[in-house]
UniProtKB/TrEMBL annotation:
Coiled-coil regions listed in the entry: none
GO biological process terms held by the UniProt record: prolyl-tRNA aminoacylation
Broad class of the protein's primary localization: cytoplasm
Protein's name in the database: Proline--tRNA ligase
Alphabetical list of CDD domains matching this protein: ProRS_anticodon_zinc (cd00862), ProRS_core_arch_euk (cd00778)
A Gene Ontology molecular function term of the record: ATP binding
Every Aminoacyl-transfer RNA synthetases class-II family profile domain range: 36-284
Source species: Nitrosotalea sinensis
Length: 480
């Protein structure tokens, strides 16, 4: 990667290198000494905190509580649900020794928490009065990613939240699955300004151990799909092996119905790819660590106090509206350096103030999304800044929707399918529902079924592979 200041790769020429430079040079994260791991820097962690706060408030408002689980899971416990365990085995990190002493039952570094959570739930749940149980865990998961690593997208340890709920009825559990998916969609679209498509995974692509998996998917500028979050209906597939049961109102012992769901810091990766440009990050105001940066411009001591006092005044006005504002008062760098620095870090709005601006009773505003400049009278500070930030948020979402439309195509011919997939796209195509055809597409093109949209309708078209009657229209894509 280039050590030069600023982003040296073009987004549309070397997407992978551009992405890596943005992550490192915008101070989001850095590589850790262990391959596959990254260190999240304060600027990147602040974005995660914004997402965490938003989701946490929504979850608590709907009756969910936060808990904590340890990172070590005994192998004997993981193997209770054999299909689930087998699905994670290739990615599991194992602890085999305590100091120099070999331990008996190997300990897995948590790849996911179903086994651990449900072994505890079986102790806590005895009666229908104990239900529902709706616990969310903000933690990390560890899954061995050694070869194709990429910051935020594929790392061996990642930040996420995983919810695990228990219910008395199937209907209540299935309602939970959809409500969580809608909560995720609202957060991603309204906070990150990224449109998503929601629906179900195919049986081949569903979460191991689930009855079915619902998902939200988005398309990146390079034409690859990114799974943005999932919500799983587990049925009784875990309650039976882990003995999660309760006495119902008729005093009959019944196995409970369960769900699990989660999103990870992969959302930050999507944010970078969708909105970033050749200058670096472009952050939606609602998740930006700094929403507005004020750059005071002065060239003499006599001007400095005048300009800094006005900058402080503007900051205090905006802070009353809970806006995150920073005054860049560094003297060791030029205003031009500051402009490029904050553009690379994606701050949504820059305010420039100099003595001449103060004399004219106005400030200069520079939008990060379009880099357009405009003047704003000081008397219009509150409404002007707030309205512009709202407009930037909406514009980024509209631009992302345009990308989704541009990268989405309806294809019924397999030769055209192969050609379009090489370009990178979401391809809506008829599918018969058979796994053999799904696997043929994967082997031939590298694409899999990302999502079967909830509103997908069967058409008169034949399956794109076998030419038998289709049962639905699925969205295929290559993915990260």
């Amino acid at each position: 990667m280039s050590k030069e200041i600023g982003i040296t790769s073009k987004k549309n020429e070397d997407f992978s290198e551009w992405y890596t430079q943005v992550v490192l040079k915008a101070h989001l994260a850095d590589y850790a000494p262990v391959k596959g791991l990254i260190v999240l820097r304060p600027y990147g962690y602040s974005i995660w905190e914004s997402l965490k706060l938003s989701l946490d408030q929504k979850l608590k408002a709907t009756g969910h509580e936060n808990g904590f689980l340890p990172v070590l899971i005994p192998e004997s416990l993981l193997s209770k649900e054999s299909d689930h365990f087998a699905g994670f085995t290739p990615e599991v990190f194992w602890v085999t020794h305590s100091g120099e002493t070999e331990i008996g039952d190997r300990l897995a570094l948590r790849p996911t928490s179903e086994a651990l959570a449900y072994s505890m739930y079986s102790k806590w749940i005895k009666s229908w009065r104990d239900l529902p149980v709706k616990i969310n865990f903000w933690n990390t998961a560890l899954r061995a990613e050694i070869k194709a690593t990429k910051p935020f997208l594929r790392t061996s340890e990642f930040l996420w939240q995983e919810g695990h709920t228990v219910h008395t009825t199937r209907e209540e559990a299935e309602k939970e699955v959809i409500e969580i998916l809608e909560m995720y969609k609202k957060t991603v679209e309204e906070e990150l300004a990224i449109p998503v498509i929601t629906g179900r995974k195919s049986d081949k692509e569903k979460f191991v151990g689930a009855v079915y998996t619902t998902t939200m998917e988005s398309i990146m500028p390079d034409g690859k799909a990114l799974q943005m979050g999932t919500s799983h209906f587990l049925g009784q597939n875990f309650s039976k092996p882990f003995d999660v049961k309760f006495l119902d109102k008729q005093n009959v012992e019944t196995f409970a119905w369960q769900t699990s769901w989660g999103v990870s810091w992969r959302l930050i990766g999507a944010l970078i790819m969708i909105h970033g440009d050749d200058k670096g990050l472009v952050l939606p105001p609602r998740v930006a660590p700094i929403q507005t940066v004020i750059v005071p411009i002065y060239y003499s001591p006599s001007d400095m106090k005048l300009v800094l006092d006005k900058a402080t005044e503007i900051k205090e006005i905006l802070a009353k509206h809970n806006l995150r504002v920073h005054i860049d008062s560094r003297d060791e760098v030029t205003p031009g350096y500051k402009f490029h620095d904050w553009e690379m870090k994606g701050v949504p709005l820059r305010i420039e103030i100099g003595p001449k601006d103060i004399a004219k009773g106005k400030m200069v505003l520079v939008r990060r999304d379009s880099l357009k400049k405009s003047d704003l009278p000081f008397v219009d500070t509150e409404n002007g800044i707030i309205n512009m930030l709202n407009d930037i948020q909406q514009t980024l979402f509209e631009n992302a929707k345009s990308l989704l439309r541009e990268k989405t195509k309806h294809v019924t011919d397999f030769e055209i399918f192969k050609t379009e997939m090489e370009k990178g796209a979401f391809l809506h195509s008829p599918w018969c529902g058979k796994q053999e055809c799904e696997e043929t597409i994967k082997e031939t093109t590298g694409a899999d079924i990302r999502v079967i949209p909830f509103d997908a309708k069967n058409s008169d078209s034949k399956c794109i592979i076998c030419n038998n009657a289709s049962t639905t229209t699925a969205i295929f894509a290559r993915s990260y």
